[in-house]
Specification:
By secondary structure, this protein is mainly β. 2% of the residues lie in helices and 45% in strands. The chain is built from four helices and 97 strands. Strands 1, 2, 4, 5, 6, 10, 12, 15 and 18 form a nine-stranded mixed beta sheet that branches. Strands 49, 50, 52, 53, 57, 59, 62 and 65 form an eight-stranded mixed beta sheet that branches. An eight-stranded mixed beta sheet has the order 85-97-96-95-93-87-88-89, with no helix packed on it. The protein is globular and about 100 Å long. This is ZP domain-containing protein. Keywords: Disulfide bond, Glycoprotein, Membrane, Signal, Transmembrane, Transmembrane helix.
Length: 1342
């Protein structure tokens, strides 16, 4: 319950802040008494001709009433201009009558010169009284007004906010998801750089998620974060003086963070309240119900129109006080109480012209005096209305969606020009409405899994006659959807018959279920309803079945929970869990085989103690029977196919290894690596301390390793966690949850991982023990008729004996702890052998242990020494360590043949052998090549499990290359890598054997510097790093005409990319130029004393990249460079005719064409690289400067001429000559962008992309193509028309063109060019009658 201590807090802090108040006034910063936090976002406004930029700041502040802003922002650095403040407005305040909190929002503007970044600062005292006695607060915002090279606009800050007062019960704080949204699509990270550190709260910077790392003290906790945004790829910021600076993507493995684009504060408090009985939503804490938006949703609002957001929540046994809301200051809230403890709120807001293009954060939570729901946050994007929208009503049935759109709200709209996503589905109409009905899986309806709901979406769009050149019809796009709750509560009991339950949420869709009691385990005869109430003897079996009913073709029912209560109230304080989170809790429960839509189970009858509903009858003694309500939560989800086996969205397996080292201060650092696999790429860390002193986590980094759509669509991640412990006593880490993927033995079940770490100093090595190193693929697959051995990697860095065994439930080593029939585990060699088993998925929960090969002693700093002996038997020996090894194995349908190399892939040279040890060097890229073949199957992938930041590429020769670069921290450590080749035959996917290797990281090798230019490679090697080198006996590739030179300090050489035997290799993303420096001997000598050296050197060129460059009236040759890679120069020119002899004179710009005239273009290298060719891969037209924009018109796709007017004049040459007819878009788009990509390849190589030519056969026959040179486009109310052009129209131009139809087209050619060579030629043409003017743009017009 809210307490009055906060009022006392404020009185306390006022007395202590008096002196600070006087001091802070000297810097124009007012003290905020009982400060609860603040957030800020900013967005640019106008950019004026003199280069100054208008900036808008939106600042929210939370504190104790009264709600006057306490922060006065001051300029901390740079030119901040003059801040102009609008009057503050209250976003929300406490309505409990206790005057606890209030939040206000203020809009500030300033005009700045745009010469340099600037920083705003606000500070003061005091935070509300908190657990860690944090007092002063400091807010900073870093703004850089430079023009971005990717968007041609000023950067916009990340958007975030929180409600003023977050409250969480002590036992319910698991994670808190903060809002992270960036209007520019940048990568946002939350940092805690100079803030108070919370030992039991972990911040995942990438997702901005707070998670519990221990128990939090009851009281207020202050959280002070900074949000930073980083571009997705390298960009430049250009200020008005022409000075540019580069901004790089965030690399979490780099030693130093790159400079962010901006920084904004996000500070708030979390009140940890006393624990509650249940953390389940709707019990002790309010539960948010549909149609409440989901966290992270993005909504779109229109200037001048009312935008409505509906919230709905429920709480059993308590009434609502309010919804706490943090939104725009002029948003209003209307509450309405309904039945069954449900409260609804309608938020209404009308955006003003000043809100245009603003991304507005909105956070909310439902609360009572005693509790609060989860906090959810969304973003509202404000735009001008560009399309019409109608008033519509949507009807959601159990198998269909119907929509009725009012004609009165869509004046001038002709129903015959409207269609659904699938145009073959027709709309009908009557006098008042336009009508449409479709099933949940037809007419282009899409399904999204949004967590608690399945959302089915479709839309009504206008379309145009392809034979029309212009149109005067209004465009329309009406999106509509139905949300169906995945979780429904069904109940049954022994007195009243309940069947055919249909669950409906407001105007949302429904699924129906039946819950029946059967007479026996055959589940064919239902109990007669006329016999209710049923009389059941204690210990008799109750047989029950739940069935789901839906028209969807592929669904499965998953029973998430089942509990018994003594009365008809599933939220009763007295309950008994039968099934919880998919895991069976009652030992008598038996689940029977059923189809994907039913769940049949039995349980022995029981009664509650304490005299609940006892009745007696005498049947050979006293028999008791009673009334028990079974409350089942049925999870209804889309079916995930695991080959032929249904698979739930959960756990596939995990492993952990560790490597300790002693610190100079006597403490110990433990580097822990753990891999986990789920359906999605989950990189969270929720390991807890099982026993002993587990120390504190000092660092944590994680990333994706590999994923596959086969085997149920899995993703494996690896995380590296560093822990610091004060002594070397043993401790245990553990992690558990639910559920394993759907498996053959128990359908679903809990999983547990446990690691035992003993840091005692070994008497044989004088160092702490290191664990075995192990990894495994998340799921391996074997045909039912093919026996196979899986040699699990069992390597120990200390050369100990490694053994594997099944986990033991009582030791918390496993969740289901099954030992499956048909499989044999050789514990001494860690070999799992498959003989024969039922088809399906099996979960293996193994434990790997290491034992010394002789008696050793472990010495400790805080406990007595212990002896460890070689393994004799499991009961008498304690291992040195225990680590988990868990994975899934699927037994598939039989294969036509079990011979490797026919259907099952067979590995080829140079694939390393299983168990092979491979040496790697610090800071040098390791390359592991894998090749496989099969006579009948096509090799489709090599899936692998390797260390963090390892990557995989495919060469044009069909080899797979696993790359990894060790760092200095990896020196001396061992890293496992496992891999499997996959082949496809028809709809079947087959796997090869699994091979695993050990990578041992050695010290850094020779120091060499390789420089890559557009046509040559230069190599310089420090002689001091290679002992015994003879510089006069080295050459390239043993080619006598390609010597290597030397002086006292270096060995060096320079050679052409196509000389000295340089080899070219191609992957999907890169071109590699490789050569080798080797030693040679005098052929007249019969002995030598020179060391044999073989040093491979390589230049790696990225085949595709995107760079935006500036140009003036005529574009000169442009040289594109990417740091650390090679570069090539290309020239882009326009010609008079298809002879390509007469280049258009630069002085004749702007170029003028008639609509339909041919435009002749050439892209050619300035310096021809021998043995290469250029291939025009694609051209696409979009209404915005984004080639990946969802609305697009393909001109060339995969080398195929989609537009019938395109003519490509060259083939397999070093340049590209092509032409097309000028065209315009139909629709209200101010501009059109066309992006073309070319690829540079090795010439005459039949395996390259260039050699393949047109690959998808999408050439459009002339009879079926558009004849009037137009690209029919679809517009939508969610898109805002804006671009990089500022158009200057003359009076005559204005008279010649309809103001509503601006026909401008920007042409961007070669913006994605092979081998880091990108050529972006831009021109714009404007309609003047029937003429189209093409003009190259100056950079200040973009």
């Amino acid at each position: 319950m809210y307490s009055h201590r906060k009022t006392d807090i404020c009185l306390f802090t006022m007395a202590h802040a008096a002196l600070l108040l006087l001091i802070s006034l000297t810097v124009s910063v007012g003290p905020a008494i009982c400060f609860y936090g603040a957030s800020m976002t900013f967005t640019p406004g106008n950019r004026y001709p003199d280069g100054t930029v208008e900036m808008h700041f939106y600042y929210r502040e939370s504190g104790k009433l009264p709600c006057d802003p306490q922060v006065s922002w001051v300029c901390d650095s740079g030119d901040c201009g003059v801040l102009t403040y609008a009057d503050p407005g209250i976003t929300d305040q406490d309505h409990s009558g206790q005057i606890l909190w209030c939040q206000s929002e203020r809009h500030m503007t300033t005009n700045v010169s745009g010469d340099e970044p600037f920083t705003l600062r606000g500070s003061g005292c005091c935070w509300a009284n908190n657990v860690h006695d944090v007092r002063e607060w400091m807010l900073r915002s870093l703004v850089d007004t430079g023009q971005r090279s990717d968007t041609q606009t000023t950067n916009r800050s990340p958007v975030s906010a929180t409600i003023p007062n977050i409250r969480v019960p002590q036992n319910c704080f698991q994670s808190l998801h903060l809002l992270v949204h960036d209007p520019d699509g940048d990568d946002v990270r939350c940092k805690c750089q100079s803030c108070h550190q919370h030992p039991n709260i972990y911040l995942e910077e990438g997702s901005c998620t707070l998670s519990s790392n221990g128990t939090l003290d009851v009281g207020l906790h202050v959280l002070e974060f900074t949000l930073e945004d980083y571009p997705a790829s390298n960009i430049t910021l250009m200020n008005r003086n022409g000075i540019s600076s580069v901004r790089n993507p965030y690399n979490q493995t780099a030693n130093a963070d790159p400079t962010p684009l901006s920084q904004v504060p996000l500070q708030f408090v979390v009140e940890i309240q006393p624990p509650v009985h249940s953390c389940a939503p709707g019990v002790n804490r309010p539960s948010l119900l549909p149609p409440t938006p989901l966290h992270g949703d993005v909504q779109h609002a229109v200037v001048g129109r009312v935008h409505i957001i509906n919230l709905r929540a429920q709480r059993m046994g308590d009434s609502f006080l309010d919804f706490q809301v943090s939104g725009p200051w002029n948003m209003s809230t209307t509450l309405r109480n309904t039945s069954q403890g449900v409260t609804e709120a309608m938020l209404t807001w009308t955006p003003q012209e000043s809100d245009l293009h603003h991304h507005v954060p909105l956070c909310f939570a439902a609360e009572t005096l005693q509790s609060q729901s989860e906090m959810r946050c969304i973003v509202i994007v404000v735009a001008k209305s560009r399309v019409l929208s109608g008033e519509a009503e949507v009807f959601c049935e159990d198998s269909s969606i119907s929509i009725a759109v009012s004609k009165a709200s869509m004046k001038g709209i002709d129903q015959s020009w409207l269609q659904l996503r699938d145009p073959t589905c027709s709309l009908t109409s009557n006098d008042t409405h336009i009508l449409g009905t479709m099933s949940l899986n037809t007419c282009g309806t899409t399904m999204e899994d949004s967590g608690d709901f399945l959302v089915f979406k479709n839309e009504i769009n206008s379309f145009e006659n392809p034979n029309e050149v212009i149109t005067r019809r209004s465009q329309i796009k009406i999106g509509f959807s139905c949300q169906y709750p995945k979780v429904a509560s069904v109940s049954n009991h022994y007195i009243n018959k309940k069947s055919d339950y249909i669950f409906t949420e407001s105007s949302f869709g429904t699924f129906s279920y039946t819950f029946d009691i059967f007479t026996d385990s055959n589940f064919s005869s239902r109990a007669d309803p006329s016999l209710y109430p049923l009389e059941i003897n204690l210990m008799d079996m109750l047989y029950m079945g739940i069935a789901a009913h839906s028209a969807l073709p592929e669904v499965r029912l998953f029973v998430e929970s089942c509990k018994a209560t003594p009365d008809d109230n599933p939220y009763s304080a007295l309950f008994y869990d039968i099934i919880k989170e998919g895991c069976i809790m009652d030992d008598t429960v038996a689940v029977y085989q059923s189809d994907s839509r039913t769940y049949d189970f039995g349980i022995q009858a029981f009664k509650f103690t304490g005299g609940y509903n006892e009745r007696s009858a005498v049947i050979s003694g006293q028999i008791l029977f009673m009334s028990i309500i079974m409350s089942v939560s049925a999870l209804f989800s889309a079916l995930l196919l695991l080959a032929s086996t249904a698979s739930a969205s959960h756990f596939y397996g995990g492993t952990m290894t560790f490597d300790p080292r002693k610190n100079p201060d006597g403490s110990y650092r433990v580097d822990i690596r753990f891999k986990e696999a789920y359906h999605s790429c989950d990189t969270g860390d929720s390991w807890g301390c099982g026993s002993g002193n587990c120390g504190s986590r000092s660092n944590y980094v994680s990333n994706r390793v590999d994923s596959s759509s086969n085997g149920g669509s899995w993703c494996q991640t690896e995380a590296v966690m560093k822990r610091t412990v004060s002594n070397n006593s043993p401790f245990q880490l553990q992690k558990s949850s639910c559920c394993w993927i759907y498996n053959t033995v128990s359908n679903v079940g809990n999983w547990r991982l446990l690691t035992h770490i003993d840091l005692g100093e070994r008497s044989d090595t004088s160092k702490p023990n290191r664990s075995p190193v192990v990894t495994a693929l998340p799921i391996v697959r074997v045909p039912q008729n093919c026996a196979r051995n899986y040699n699990l990697l069992s390597c120990d860095p200390d050369h100990d004996q490694v053994r594997c065994r099944y986990g033991v439930f009582s030791a918390n080593e496993c969740g289901m702890c099954n030992q499956h029939a048909g499989f044999t585990l050789d514990q001494s060699t860690c070999t799992l052998s498959y003989a024969n088993a039922t088809k399906g998925v099996y979960a293996f929960e193994l434990v790997m242990e290491d034992y010394p090969t002789q008696n050793i002693t472990l010495n400790y700093t805080a406990m007595a020494a212990a002896v460890r002996s070689p393994f004799r038997n499991a009961s008498s020996n304690s291992p040195l360590s225990k680590i988990p090894l868990q994975f899934s194995l699927e037994v598939e349908a039989p294969a036509p043949s079990c011979t490797e190399g026919e259907y099952l892939p067979r590995f080829l040279h140079p694939t390393p052998h299983n168990g092979e040890h491979i040496q790697a060097r610090v800071n040098q890229e390791l390359e592991i090549r894998v090749a496989a073949t099969a006579t009948f199957s096509s090799i489709t992938d090599v899936v692998f499990s390797g260390p963090l930041n390892s990557t995989k590429e495919t060469t044009t020769t069909g080899e797979y290359v696993i790359n990894w670069t060790p760092t200095s921290e990896n020196y001396g450590q061992h890293f496992p890598i496992c891999f499997i080749a996959e082949g496809q035959y028809g709809s079947r996917n087959y796997q090869s054997e699994m091979r695993c290797v050990i990578v041992v990281v050695e010290a850094a090798g020779p120091r060499a510097h390789v420089t890559c230019t557009k046509d040559a490679m230069s190599v310089s090697i420090e002689r001091a790093t290679i002992s015994g080198i003879h510089g006069d006996h080295l050459r390239l590739n043993n080619n006598a005409s390609c010597p290597v030179f030397s002086n006292n300090t270096h060995v060096f050489t320079t050679f052409s990319l196509n000389g000295c035997g340089t080899q070219i290799e191609e992957t999907e993303e890169h071109l590699f130029f490789k050569n080798t420096i080797v030693t040679y001997d005098n052929p007249n000598h019969i002995i030598t004393r020179k060391n044999v050296f073989e040093i491979e050197v390589m230049c790696k060129y990225q085949k595709k990249s995107s760079i935006t460059t500036r140009f003036d009236a005529h574009r000169p040759a442009i040289n594109f460079t990417e740091r650390g890679f090679g570069s090539f120069s290309y020239q882009f020119e326009f010609y008079q005719s298809d002879s390509f002899r007469s280049m258009r004179n630069p002085s004749s710009y702007p170029l003028e064409y008639n609509v339909g005239d041919k435009i002749y273009m050439e892209i050619a290298p300035v310096n021809v690289v021998q043995n290469t060719e250029v291939f025009l891969e694609s051209c696409v037209a979009t209404p915005y400067d984004n080639p990946n924009y969802p609305i697009s018109y393909p001109i060339i796709t995969n080398g195929c001429e989609v537009d019938e007017t395109v003519n490509i004049y060259t083939s397999h040459q070093a340049n590209v000559k092509f032409s097309m007819e000028a065209f315009k878009f139909i629709g209200q788009y101010d501009q059109v962008f066309i992006s073309c990509s070319i690829i540079l390849c090795e010439a005459n190589n039949p395996n390259t992309r260039c050699a393949q030519g047109c690959t998808n056969g999408t050439q459009v026959a002339p009879s079926s193509h558009v004849h009037k040179r137009e690209a029919a486009m679809q517009t939508g109310s969610h898109f805002i028309s804006q671009g990089p052009l500022r158009l200057r129209r003359s009076a005559s131009l204005t008279e010649a063109i309809s103001p509503s139809l601006n026909l401008n087209l920007v042409f961007v050619a070669g913006c994605v060019v092979a081998v880091v060579a990108m050529v972006c030629g831009m021109m714009v043409y404007k309609s003047r009658g029937s003429k189209v003017n093409y003009q190259l743009l100056k950079s200040d017009e973009i």
